[in-house]
User: Which sequence fits this backbone?
């Protein structure tokens, strides 16, 4: 149980385009979903916290207009990187939690912006 | 504010040897503590968690960790390393509920045959 999926697993796009990443909890309803970013050989940095039906809470330094988060249901959250640039290239990981506090992580999405 | 310090960015052990990955935390409230493992180009898999119950926590794949409040530590151990244990390990802390995790910088474990 407690499986989280992400789609796509890998995406390459041109600079200036927008990319949408989906995060789904497959066998449970997630009260909260989190989006993290991980640079090579570094730890995970929290970008935003998302609760179903409400606006996401962004961490300091994360541009909410650039990284749009939508949490339309208890099983789906999306992250859209708008007008992507090469510096946005990274590994994006989502996690979903239920009331027991444990976060279950998706497999990650590797974004490469050319 | 909470923080996590993982001592040693890289640990190398021989196959069959003891694995010890160190984690110290800082928290103003009783912490929830976690160890996650990450294989290359994959997400994080939960190894074990401490949530104020037993101080010695057993996880998957033979790993365990002991919560020591006096030392503010939550070190991860495994009696005998296996080649498949080679991965990146992250210690994390949270305040409980649906609060975000704060991660350490990670420790890369190498297992030598």
Assistant:
């Amino acid at each position: 149980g407690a499986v989280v999926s992400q789609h796509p697993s890998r995406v390459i796009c041109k600079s200036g385009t927008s990319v949408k990443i989906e995060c789904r909890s497959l066998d449970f309803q997630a009260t909260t979903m989190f989006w993290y970013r991980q640079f090579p050989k570094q730890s995970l940095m929290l970008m935003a916290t998302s609760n179903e039906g409400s606006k996401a809470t962004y961490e300091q330094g994360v541009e909410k207009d650039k990284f749009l988060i939508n949490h339309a249901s208890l099983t789906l959250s999306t992250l859209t990187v708008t007008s992507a640039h090469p510096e946005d290239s990274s590994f994006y990981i989502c996690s979903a939690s239920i009331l027991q506090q444990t976060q279950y992580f998706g497999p990650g999405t590797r974004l490469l912006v050319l | 504010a909470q923080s996590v310090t993982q001592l040693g960015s890289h640990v190398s052990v021989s196959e069959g040897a003891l694995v010890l990955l160190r984690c110290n935390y800082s928290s103003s409230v009783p912490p929830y503590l976690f160890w996650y493992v990450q294989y290359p180009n994959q997400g994080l898999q939960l190894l074990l968690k401490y949530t104020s119950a037993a101080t010695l926590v057993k996880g998957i794949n033979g790993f365990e960790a002991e919560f020591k409040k006096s030392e503010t530590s939550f070190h991860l151990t495994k009696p005998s390393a296996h080649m498949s244990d080679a991965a990146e390990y992250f210690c994390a802390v949270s305040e409980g509920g649906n609060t975000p995790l704060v991660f350490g910088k990670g420790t890369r474990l190498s297992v030598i045959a």
Summary: The radius of gyration of chain B is 13 Å.
